Every structure is written in structure tokens, then in C-alpha cells.
Amino acid sequence: MLLITCPxxxxxxxxxxxxxxxxxxxxxxxxxTVSDAEWADYLFMRSNHRGLHREQWWHxxxxxxxxxxxxxxxxYRIDGIEKLGAAGEAT
Amino acid sequence: MADILRSALHDAAGGRxxxxxxxxxxxxxxxxxxxAPNVPGAVTDVLKIGLPLQPNxxxxxxxxxxxxxxxxxxxxxxxxxxxxxxxxxxxxxxGGVHAAVTDLTSGYTSIRLRGAxxxxxxAKGCTLDLHPRLFGDGQCAxxxxxxxxxxxxxxxxxxxxxxxxxxxxxxxxxxxxxxASRWAA
Amino acid sequence: MTQPARLRHGGxxxxxxxxxxxxxxxxxxxxxxxxxxxALLANGVHMVARSWKYHRxxxxxxxxxxxxxxxVQLGEGSRTVPNxxxxxxxxxxGLSARSVNCWPGLEWDLLSLNGLISRLLPAGFYYKTFMWxxxxxxxxxxxxxxxxxxxxxxxxxxxxxxxKYNAHCDVLIAGAGPAxxxxxxxxxxxxxxxxxxxxxxxxxxxxxxAREPIxxxxxxxxxxxxxxxxxxxxxxxxxxxxxxxxxxxxxxLTIAERLTDHLPEDRRRGPRExxxxxxxxxxxxxxxxxxxxxxxxNNDRPGVMLASAISxxxxxxxxxxxxSAVIFTNNDSAYATVLDLLDAGIQVAAVVDAxxxxxxxxxxxxxxxGIRPMTGSAVVDVRGRRHVQAAxxxxxxxxxxxxxxxxxxxxxxxxxxxxxxxxxxxxxxxQSGGRPLFDEQVAGFVPGPAVQPQRSVGGCRGSFALADxxxxxxxxxxxxxRETGHDSAATLPPGPGxxxxxxxxxxxxxxxxxxxxxxxxxRQFLDLQNDVSAADVFLAxxxxxxxxxxxxxxxxxGFGTDQGKLGNINGLAILSQxxxxxxxxxxxxxxxxNYTPVTFGAIAGRDLGDLFEPIRLTALHAWHLExxxxxxxxxxxxxxxxxxxxxxxxxxxxxxxxxxxxxxxAMMDASTLGKIDIQGPDAAEFLNRVYTNNWHTLKIGQxxxxxxxxxxxxxxxxxxxxxxxxxxxxxxxxxxxxxxxxAWLERxxxxxxxxxxxxxxxVTDHWATMAVVGPRSRETVKSVCGDIDFEASGFPFMTxxxxxxxxAAARVARISFSGELAYEVNVPANYARHVWExxxxxxxxxxxxxxxxxxMHVLRAEKGYIIVGQDTDGSLTPQDLGMEWIVSKTKDFIxxxxxxxxxxxxxxxxxxxxxxxADPTLVLPEGGQIVDEPEWSAPVTTTGHVTSSYFxxxxxxxxxxxxxxxxxSRTGQTIYVxxxxxxxxxxxxxxxxxxxxxGRRQHG
Lengths: 91, 185, 1004
Prior knowledge:
The structure holds three protein chains of three kinds.
Chain A: E1 3-6, E2 10-13, E3 18-22, H1 36-44, E4 52-58, E5 66-72, E6 78-83
Antiparallel strand pairs in A: 1-2, 3-4, 4-5, 5-6
Chain B: E1 18-22, E2 26-32, H1 39-47, E3 58-60, E4 64-70, E5 73-78, H2 83-94, E6 99-103, E7 108-114, H3 118-123, E8 141-145, E9 148-155, E10 160-166, H4 167-180
Helix pairs in contact in B: 1-2
Chain C: E1 14-23, E2 26-32, H1 36-42, E3 47-50, E4 57-59, E5 71-74, E6 81-85, E7 96-99, H2 113-116, H3 125-129, H4 137-148, E8 162-174, H5 178-189, E9 194-197, E10 213-214, E11 217-218, H6 219-230, E12 236-239, E13 242-247, E14 252-258, E15 273-285, E16 289-291, E17 304-306, H7 307-316, E18 324-329, H8 334-343, E19 347-353, H9 361-368, E20 374-375, E21 377-383, E22 390-396, E23 403-412, E24 415-419, E25 422-424, H10 427-431, E26 437-439, E27 444-446, E28 454-456, H11 466-483, E29 525-527, E30 532-533, H12 534-542, H13 548-555, H14 568-579, H15 583-586, H16 600-604, H17 621-626, E31 630-634, E32 637-642, H18 650-663, E33 666-669, E34 674-679, H19 683-690, E35 703-709, E36 715-725, E37 728-733, H20 738-752, E38 759-762, E39 767-773, H21 777-782, E40 800-805, E41 808-813, E42 822-828, H22 832-843, E43 849-850, H23 853-862, H24 902-905, E44 910-917, E45 929-931, E46 944-952, E47 957-965, E48 974-978, E49 984-990, H25 1000-1003
Parallel strand pairs in C: 1-7, 8-9, 8-15, 9-12, 15-28, 17-24, 18-19, 18-24, 19-20, 33-43
Antiparallel strand pairs in C: 1-2, 3-4, 5-6, 5-7, 10-11, 13-14, 14-15, 16-25, 21-22, 22-23, 26-27, 29-30, 31-32, 33-39, 34-37, 34-38, 35-36, 36-37, 39-42, 40-41, 41-42, 44-47, 44-49, 45-46, 45-48, 46-47, 48-49
């Protein structure tokens, strides 16, 4: 069971969180202007990265904040956490 | 709030573990930017408590508490003021500031676990480090107890913990606590 | 009763507390403090099992977790434990045990015939033989299972209480032998929070039989003093009978503590076992090492034991494992056993040492007592079938792979102690993510670099000398505590004083050469539990199983309850030799939790029955119970399903409830619907983005139905949202979708749209919701609510009013999920019971009838209203559901762009339709697949399936909803629904709305 440091609440057990998958998936600002392929890429394609991975986590049973975890998908080592930027971009 | 009081039967249990509902509290949820004008001020105006800005802490008066829930969210619990009074008081003080004030009085109840072994009972279903050095007076935490979401507040002076739990989970949690206490000291 | 092999003095058994136990139906005496294995040996019982493949007699080999043979079934009935290791079972009065692998009996085993035909049962035998013909597998499997033995799980419900405990500490120490205790002392003295867990009945590990003194005291005295000191630290816990069985991510470790199994049943109190879930800031592994056997012909005969086990039985349990022993070693450690035997007055018939020039402190001490080993020699064979009668000794050639000549010496003995060196127990290190490295010096795998905040000390890192263990332990304890902010006062590590670090002086000997005239590796056993011999490894290598993971699965080497603790390393070495590569490149198989088996009771803990998952209750639950409701689980909620009157069937009750709702008035507890309070100036814009329809036009006091999509365009949730104020809305979600929708909405707000000024608050639990439904609902609600105008003109459909219902502040909404005139009364849940009862009284003149989810389903299906998650499955768009009317064409919203994706826009997608079976009394099965022709045979392409199906009281016939390819264009056609028994039922495709298509009733 991972120990995840919520940027607000500090280290908590994984059971308090849920993982939202890869971070940095950007929703096209004007969906109508993108091709089907580009839209499908946004919808379905993820890097499935081996190694350090930025992903979104939700402190579901704590402060209910979404934030970013940099986690190694091989060792599960957590390299760092980030609060979401006020502008929310690249999250 | 009232933690320093001793009720008539406080000592009757001889330190044995007790589980009791603490009914009659009024709960109001507040969301707002702590940096926004009026948000901390509104809470001070209505409850005479400074808004806790440190995560997992609470502010308390004789009759009310304000729990930090998130960077823009607090739970207000009051013995004396009704939820309606708190809601209207907060809205008045907030003025036009973007904030959300919501009565949740019927949505929660409190359970107090007191006496020998209460920490061990919680540890059976809670992954927080409950060591009194790390989780003591003035602190609180939202977490899971068994499979129920709870807000836990240690009451070290009373050798107790207060659990604020959503109404629909209360029966489950009540049974879980009794089961977990079966072999407690 | 006497114990013929009990030594007169010594041991840590309690001679004043005799115990009677039974093994395979016979009563034996023993003492408290004995293990089942030590007590059996004290009674002269060596043969305890038959091997699983050849059913060869097998005896006790070890004294701990590594034991492969002495695997027993404990007790009877509901408390029986399968596959316990007799070496780890403490005896108590009344303990009963039996061998698990000796069908039909240990003494006379029918299957030992297998031994005679062993040439027919090589590695992979089962794979090769029993796979053909395919259809026979089920017969083979039955026989193989029976022959394979192993224990039997209890068939009855487990009566015991098992619990879990979450713990945190600065330093967790696995193992309370010398290294672990030295670490604990150092960490404890610094003030750190320490947990020390040890799997044995008492802490001490090798100190319980060690010969060396520590700090000038006998080892056991030092042990007593150390435990007494540890007990003075309030932040230190020493757990006995507690196995650290798993090392998981981020220094999370799991410990199984056995609390009562060592006691007679009438003295057991409290939980039987406890699983500790420990989050440790620092971990010290001090799990020791396991002696490994030597591989020689017939090395599996009862009476062949690990040398260290003989020492344990002699010194710790005061048991004579034999009368006359041959000790066979390739290193110095077995000479300690020689000394132990001499001390106990047991004859040492010979010491056979594979080394040409034995050396080491124990050897020197033994030499001073007259021991003259046979050097450069090996035990190559064993005489005796059911017990060792003699060892056959021969001279080894210089490189150890062949014998020097064919001369052998026969030495009579009834005990052969073997020592092939020690294997560090690296299981937990490997589970932590580390990769063990082969160490030539140790001739075994040792921990590599730590990958978590962890240190290995003592035997488990290949430091076998007591002095090293103590020093490493103390240093690690000090360092680990320091990293958690606790500094030790400078004190010296404990030490054995005179005895300096000694040389292990091992000559690797992975396989003793075959005795003259024997096939290569036959009956040279590596894995005693799975009957894997060196010959099997050779065969596997020849057949191309070169990866160690393949070898394991082909030969079964390292499977079973012991997971190869003894034999794996020898198997790896022999495979390496066969492949001509070094052991390091062969590597190990993966070490996975659990280190030793953990009972299902302990794993389950209290997560069973009503505590398995939260049972969420509404504020009206007690009323439902009092009124005889049957309940349905919806997510975690208990919802009334229907309310049968005495003698009523479900069907009758539901018809009665439906009738009341369509003709009088009926009431349902709808409190479980998710409710999210939405506040802020951008609330309407937010709703516009998450719902398919337009929300800017909703006025205060109005309600609107919304459909929520995922970004791929598929329906995710639905519900009604009301506008409470200028910037204030209340959203409802499906019961099961509430948490998911809330997380989803917060995610969009926090990650994509932080600019939107919107706050969400979950208010599901605060509000109780009562749906008052039917033509008489207006009179009913009105009679307990004086301050709301209930005239249709003043209070139209899809609006709400605030007022007082039975004096409680309420929000009453004209919302209908039944198609009837209906009011949804919302009150704070603390008032729910009062208001519900007031409404029941108010509706009594009209025959108000409480109804449950089943009736709700019938009513909504009659209207063609979908239930998200029942009629949808995440693959349907609003268009598929015929709900284009709710999809805005003038704004963007989540999922809209996906409508034009090729797959979403294609014709022939499944669409929601109604079905009427030709037989109006037949309720089609939900999930029934739809085929186009009545004559069909599998495999067949189905074109859809039934999603909802009920008997409609209002229509007097059955109705169903279905999703069907191109369904809406096929209205009027006949399709066939499979009934699951090979038959099909014809049904006509209809519009999904069966009743009051114009919606007159709900607008009334």
C-alpha cells in the first residue's frame, strides 16, 4: 500500500485516495476544430510510461483536492507531489 | 466545546471503554477562499472563532468548533447556535463574497469513543498514526475508519476521540465500533 | 508415559507442565514449550509423512519455517488448520494432529507403489501424460488431487475472531535473534518507536541454543536481560509468534500474530490472530539464515536432518534426535552440532567433511575433544528405508564432481546431520523490491542495495558469526533510529567477548556425486515436499527449461507450503552446472509474499458479514423494518424493495403497490439519491458544461432533468437539478453514481476549469426525500402543508416550493419518475420519520401505500424512463436512447464532440426500444439475448439484449425495454429473446413508452 503525501494533509495511506491516471492530458479548447484522430488521441491515448510518471490523484477521503503525483511505475517510488497550478493548465 | 466539563456519570464507567452518540450538534459547511475578504471574518463574527488555516486543525470556543476540511472548506459544529442562525449570520457577514454556506445538521452525527483502549480500537480500522504526540489537542483529520469516511478529533483531556460521521454510515460505524471493542481493555 | 528420546537435563521446555497430545490418532506425552516436532522426536517418532509423488517415507528435517515434510492437519471441525508445520506448532493439552499426505495411512501407504515406478514420473510427468485425451482431465485431476495430499480446509464457518491493527513505528525489526535484538536495544535506547516481531514462541532465535556467551553471560541470560530492558520502554513492542510475512511498498509490512493457537481451547480468550499492518519509517531485517541440506542419494530418508535442527532439538528442547549420529558438512558450523551432541552424551559415529583441510573455531574445539573427521569425503548414499540405518561414505575427487575411486565405507547410524552452509533468508528484502546478489564467499544469495528505507543485518545478509550479527544489529539500530530523529547515547554494542569473527570456511558442494552404479541425480532430492530430484533438474535443462522460472513451473521445485526454503538454492546451483553458467546469471525465482502461509481467517479479519462493506441506511430505515419491507442492495444502500403483506408474494405486493400509485396514492423513500449543492456565480455555466441541455434558461423555483455524459459521449448519469437561488442549485444524481459524479465534477472544476466560481458540497445525507405519487398525491401533501399553493396553475410540473410539511421546513418539488402526478417532499433527515408518518396519516383516507424499488422500476419502465446502469452500460449515447430532445445544439458540453466520431455516428448502433412478448403473461428475462430468427443454433450473432422487464399492472401484461441494433427503425417487427434454456420467446418491437405517451397524468 502506497504512502501518498497529500500536498495539504501530509502522508496518508493509499486507501484514502483514488488515482485519476496520467496528468497533463489537455482538453482541446475548441473541440470542433480538431480532427477525429486528434479527439481520439485526447480521449483514449495514454503514454503508459515505464518510469517516472506524472499522474493525477484525488484525496477522496481527506481534503478532496486533486493534485499531481510523480511516481515511478516500475518501483512505485514517489518522486514528488505538486499542487495544481491556479490556472490549472498542464494538469 | 464542553470538553472540559464532567457530566454526572463521567466517572461511573471506571475508565472502561464507552461508545456514545453526541446528538444535538448543528453542522454547517463553509466553502470560500480564506484569502477572500470576509471569509475568516464571517466565522469570527458568528462563532467567535478564528478560521483555522492550518490543514487538519480546528478552532474551538466553549460552544462551537470549526474544523479545517480543505484549503477552501470548513465544517462548523455548534451546540448553542442553530444552523439557521449560523447560515444567516455567515451570509450576512460574507456579503457578496463568493462562498458556499450549507446546512448539514441532519447529514452528520457525532460518536464519542472514550476510555481505556479507545486509541487501539480506532487503530483497528484507521491507517492514521494516532500517537498522541502526532495527533493531539487541536488537531483533526478526515480519513476512513473501517470503510466509513469520518472526521476524527482527538480529545486527549478526556481520553477520548470524537468521530463525525455521515448519517447514512452511522449505523455501520456504530456496529463496527462495538465489534472492534469486543476485546478492548 | 515416558518420552524415550528426552534428555534428562536442559532445554527450555517446562518439565513441570506435562502435556498430552495426539498424532495420527495416538496419544503422546510432551511438555509445554515443545513444538509438535520436538515432542514427536522425544517420543521417537521420526517418520511423519509420505512424499507427494512417490510416497516415500519422510521424517522431520528442520526445526522451523523451512520444514518441508512435517506438515500436519491440526484439530478437527471448524477450527482445523491445514498444512501447519509441526516444527512451528506449539503443543498444548488436547492438541491433535495428523499427517496430511499419507492417504490412506502413514504406515501402509498404497501409493508408495509410485516409488517403484518412479522412472515413469519424471518432471513434467503430469503435463505430459494427463493432457490427453482432453476430456479425461477431470478424472485425472480428481485422482491427482487425492494423491497430492496436503491439508483440508474446514467446511464449517470459522467460529473465531480475527482482527487487524494498523501500527506506525520509527523502526520495525523483523526477527528477534541476536542481530534483531541488538538492533532493538540500540533503537529503543534512543527513544524511537520500535516494533520487533519474531515468528517463534519466544524471542531469541539462535540464542535459544547458541553456545557462545555474550557480554560475559550465557546467551540465554543475555537474552533474558535484553528482553527485560526492552520491556522498560513504553514505545517498544516485542511481538512473539508474529511472522513478518509481507514487505510491500513504501515500508508497509504485514505481520501475522498468532495469539491463542498455542493454548488449550478452554484457555483461549480474545482474538485468535491479529494482522499487523505496519507503516515503518525504517526497517531492519534480521531474519537470519536457513541451513541448507546436502544433495546425495536417498538424502530424504527419515533420520537425515539439518545439523542446526539437531542442535536446536538437543539444546532448546532437550531431545535426542538419534543415538548415533553421522555429521556431514562442508563448513565449520556443523562442528557446533558435533559439540552439542557430545555434550548431550550422544554418540558421534563419524564426521564426514567435504573439505580436504577442515578449519574453524568449532572444528578446533571438536578436535580438542577427540573428533577426527573423514576429510575430503561425502555421504553418498543412505541405507534404511523407513529410517536411517547407515551412511555410505566415499572419497571426493579434487573438484568435488566425481568420486575418488569406487571404495565406500558403511557407517552404522540412526541420524545423519547435514550442513551445506547457510542461505540468508532474503525473502523480505526481495519482496521490498530488492534484487538478491550471489555471494561466492557465502555461496548463497545476499541482499543487494536497499530500495526502501531498510537495512539487512546478521544472518540474512550473510554474516553468520554471532559477533558480526550483534555488531551489525546494534549499528543498524542506531543508524535507523538516527534517521528518524532519535540519537542513541553512545554505548558499546553487545559482543561475545572472546570469540572473534570466525571463518565460515565453506567448500561449496551443490551435489554429491552419485554412488557407483546409480543413475545421475536419481533419488537425490532437492525439494522434499514436491519430490523434485537432481535428475528432474537435469531433465528440465535438457528439455530446454533454462529459465529458473520455467524450471520451477516444470518441476514444481519451490512450490508448496515451504516455497523451497531448503531446496531452491541447490536446485539453482545444479541447473547452473547443467547449463554451464554461474549461479549469479541463473538468478532466483521471484520471492513473493507470504513468507509462510497466513490463514484466511486472519486475512479476512472482521471484514465479513455485516461489516464486510458499509451498509448505508436512510433516516427512514427503522420505519421500513417495522413495516415488513424486504430490502434490496443498491450500491452500499439498503433500499426497501417491496412491502409484502402477510401471505403476499412479491408479485402480488408489487401489483398492489403499482395499483395504488396509478389509482390512489403511494409513497417511496427516495433519500438515497445523490445530492450535490452547487453555489457560485458560474453555477449555471458549470451545469451547461456538464449536462447536455441548456441551463441558462432555468428560473429560480424550477427543476430540470439533466443527462451527464462522459467525454466519449456515453451516458454516465442523470438526475433533476433545481435552481434554489440566483447562484444556487441543487443537483440530484443516481443512487449508485453519487460518489462518482461528485469526484468527476470536482475534478473538472479543480483541474480544467479553476476559473469557474463554483463550490460543490455533498448534501446527500442531510436531506430525506419522499416521493408521494399518484392521482391523490396532491390532497395528501396539501393536507399537511398549509403554506404552499398546490393549484396546478400556481405550482406547475417541474417546479418546487418551500414550505412547512407537518411543521418541518421542507422543499416540495413536482417531479415524477412514474409519470403520475407526484410530489417529492424533501426535509432535513432529522425530521424524516415525523414527516413520513404525517404523510402516511394524511394519505390514509386515499389508501396511501408505501412502495419499494421494484414498483418504482415497473412504473418508470411503463413510461420508458431509463435507469442509468441498468438500461445503459457505458456504451450508449443520448441518441441511442432516443433522447435527442435533451441534447443542445448550440453549446459545447462534455462528450458532445464524440457524437461525430465515426463509431458514435454510424447507423446500426444499438438503440433503446420497447418489447412486448407474444405471450402477455411471460416476463422476458433481463439480460436475455435477442436473435432475429426463431430457428438458431450457437454460435449466433445476437442483435441486442433485454435491459428491463416487468409485469405491468396498469397494462395487464408484461413489458420490457431492450437495446437492439437499429432498433427504432424496426418498430413492429418480431424478434426472439433467448430464455437461457435453449428456447426463445417471440416479442414485438415497440416504442419504449408504454403508458400515457402525452404525459397528461404527471401534468395534472
